[in-house]
Amino acid sequence: MFELLPLILIGVLFILLRGSTKRIDRLEKELGDIREKLFRLGGSAGELASPAVENAQTDPDQVVLPLDTEAAIVRDEPVADGAPRQSEPASIPNTAADLLPAAARQETHAKAPAESIENLLGARWAVWAGGLALAFGGVFLVRYSIESGLLGPGVRLTLAALFGLALIALGDLIRRNALPKAEVLYANAMVPGILTAAGAVSLFGSIYAAHGIYDFIGPTLAFLLLALTAFGVLGLSLLHGQALAGLGLAGSMVTPLLISTTAPSLWTLFLFLTVAQVATTLASRMKGWLIVPSIAQALLGIWGLIALIELDDTTPITLSLLAMIAAWVLIWPGATADDPAGPEERLSLEAIGGRMATGSLGLDITLSLAVLLPALVMLERGLTVSLPLFGFAALIAALSAAGSARFGAFWPTVIATVGALLGAVMTSGLITQAQILLLGFGTDDTVAVNLGGPVMYIFLGLAAVFVLLGLAQMRRRHAADPLFSTVWAAITASLPVLLASITFVFYGVYARDWTHGLFAIGLGAVLLGACEFLYRQGALPGFRRGIDLLLFGSFAAFALALHALTDGIVTTILLALLGFAYLMATRRRPWSGLAWVMVISLGGVLVRVAWDPTLVGPDALSRTPILNPLLPGYGIPALLALLSAYEIRNWPAQRARHALQGLASLLGLLAIAILVRHAMNGGVLDSSVPTLGEQSIYTLLVVGLSGILMTLDLKSPSPVFRFGSMLAGGIAVLQTVSLHLGALNPYFTGESTGNWPLINLLLIGYLLPGLAYAGLAFYARDKRPLPYVILQALSGAVLGFAWVTLSVRRFWQGEFIAYWKGFEQAETYSYSVAWLAIGVGLLALGSRFDARSLRIASAVIVMLTVAKVFLIDMANLEGVLRALSFIGLGFVLIGIGLFYQKILRGKSAERPTTDDKEAPTVI
């Protein structure tokens, strides 16, 4: 009797369940009819749901409609506002919360009240703990049966599989009968989802045990069963949530590890992984998930890395990663991603930072890294076979195309760009190491040399792909998304030139490389044509910086072509002419970057000059003064710089004008200085220390440059001319102190001063620069600050004093005046006489021109002479010379005193007259 009781209860439960199932089916059908009628009404779903939005925020499954609307639904008539019916019914939402707009649903979830302790413990933790208890219960039951020997392995596995299926069925049954609002409130703790997950784990375990432990089934059948289970769980996740989808994804990705085989097929493996990843993407698209697809992309990238380390075939890995990129572009997030840009958005650090934080960051970054890392690992394979190189290029090109295909795809675009550049650098380094190893061990070096051929063409092709993608992106979106289009303009302008430059350095022919030369010419022409096209499309002023970047890229490409097809002085001159051609285009186009191209061009000329000052090589440089290759090599760029500064004298961009003015001044001075250096050193340019005569010419040039810039500043005021003139004067003063009076002074170096008494090295090295300083100070007295004028005047006075002093020594010592020759008594006395003469002369000039500065200088020299007489002459002179020294000094000092008394008396006599003139007249 008791044995029949369970059977009777099971029959009663079956009848009750069947009756409940019929009632549920009938209610679902009626609810579907009502929903269909609801969405046939004239009002949109958002408008119909608007009266219930406030209630839905507290209870999203209870939508209260107006009475007239309900009546209209029953009668199948339009609502009271008389709106027409829709021709096609919209998709029926699963719950009442789906009636809300997306923004309202997000706001509902964002403003959900804090969860109580009762909900947390009873509704969530109880479910999680229950699911875990079910899993452990099944494990313990199987363990008990094994230890007790009650059932055989086959029966145990069958029962475990049936247990898992029963849990899945029970989860679906409860899902159909559970409260609708539980799906919204407890999405990550749904009882049906927990039961389904426990059942899926049981199925995974039973299938694996049947293959891996008991060997009941072979690897093929086990693989198929595990794959079907994983995809089934992934399908059920559409009903139970994202957590179950993660379990199905984990099962599918782990399945290949659970199956052991002696002949693994890489194609089969990555075909299965690709299908799993695409299926996950489809499910995520349907439910709007972000976490599970990101994990799927990361796991597929990890599988690619593992396979590249263990196996040699890269083709299935490449195709699988390409399929993942296609799924990202076409399925999820695909075209459903919102446009984060606005027409008012402009290029700035803040705007770029904001763009970096927009979009589906998890999806974007995991996709980019999952593609980039395996692609870089492929490069090592490319040293022996070229196919991995093509795989690398295909992955980087596809990733960059994905970034260009969607609005705001910042990370795929930037990471693809970095990957291309890293790949070029890494491959170049690997090729160089291979050449060293092969040549070092005496192996045939043609293998290492031929490795550069595929690499060069692959990276040039990759550069062309980036150009095409960038131009297409800018053509479509330069107005709608100027920020991201400007980023693409920077990539299009820089990356292809960098890739071509790297391949030229490592694999090019330095004498004349037609491959890189023609590629660079084509690249420059395409970028320049893009500037013209965008300009005619009305891209200014919103896309001004993008056009400027493309201009810079075209110039860089043409400059690379010059380096690939020419050499030496020809490259230097053509580089300046190329920049001047861009600058002359300012007459036809108002592009702000045209003037800056000339600035960059002249900067390139300076780099080439610093690299090789001879421009043609030391052996090919002619020794003829002036008429040698240095004249056109330095003179033509300087002349073009001067013409450029004049051409854009009215250009609105002040920074470009000032930069060209400064470069024109610098190049002009450099051209004259290098010709002087060449002439003074017998036609040889080397690093030897210049002589005093050569340095004097440089000092005169700098002083002259200061005066020229001062004059230009008066005619065309400019900060470059104003501060440049004072900077040149300061440099000249430093040269005087450090070189003329110090390192190059013939008193210290022992250099010959020449055979002629007056026209000699001392004239060139001291008197002429001193006069130049004096003239500069006189010219600048009302044009520059007083401290600057005083500094120039003091420099001239010091050099003049040095010329007199050294000339006295030359009179007594001859051509060589080095300090080690000592001093004669007559020479020592002569210094005092000469210094007193200078002091008296300055005093007379100061009185004549009423120049207080000259009188002060006179007083300083006289005081110096007094100190010399009392400290040096008294100790070193003897006899009549000592007496004459003091007598002469006494007469001069008395005369100076009388002279000053006369001046002071004259000023005192004039003071009352002046006071009377200034006193007010009393009437």
TrEMBL record:
Pfam families: DUF2339 (PF10101). The keyword Membrane applies. The chain crosses the membrane at residues 125-142, 154-174, 186-209, 221-241, 253-276, 288-309, 315-335, 356-377, 383-402, 409-431, 451-471, 483-510, 516-535, 569-586, 593-611, 631-648, 660-676, 696-714, 726-744, 756-779, 786-808, 828-846, 853-871, 883-901. It comes from the Bacteria. This is DUF2339 domain-containing protein. The lineage of its organism: Bacteria, Pseudomonadati, Pseudomonadota, Alphaproteobacteria, Hyphomicrobiales. Keywords: Membrane, Plasmid, Transmembrane, Transmembrane helix. The keyword Cytoplasm does not apply.
